[in-house]
Design goal:
With about 90 residues, the protein is mainly beta. The protein is built from 1 helix and 4 strands. The longest helix has 4 residues. It starts with a strand and ends with a strand. The mean pLDDT is about 75.
Length: about 90
């Protein structure tokens, strides 16, 4: 089991980006950060030719308000993934 910290930044929008709204879209950057853990299955016994298999759990905390959120936007959020992205 391995633990890690992460941070993300990006734009959340349902508008199409074009040359007229590109400057205002980038003013609405959203950020989050959190902790995560991974567990890698390396030993498959008689299936030793199978690549290692990783399950991960990320628990983000929004650092600013997501769009269309109510007053209580600090809620428990989590993400389960299979294999690493990087």
């Amino acid at each position: 089991i391995n633990g890690y910290l992460f941070a993300d930044i990006g734009i959340i929008s349902n508008e199409n980006l074009n040359k007229d709204n590109i400057k205002t879209a980038f003013s609405e950057l959203r950020m989050d950060a959190g902790v995560g853990i991974t567990y890698t299955f390396k030993n498959w016994g008689f299936l030793e030719t199978i690549r290692p298999f990783t399950i991960r759990l990320d628990i983000p905390v929004f650092l600013n308000r997501p769009p269309a959120s109510d007053e209580d936007f600090l809620q428990m959020r989590w993400l389960i993934g299979i294999n690493r992205l990087f």
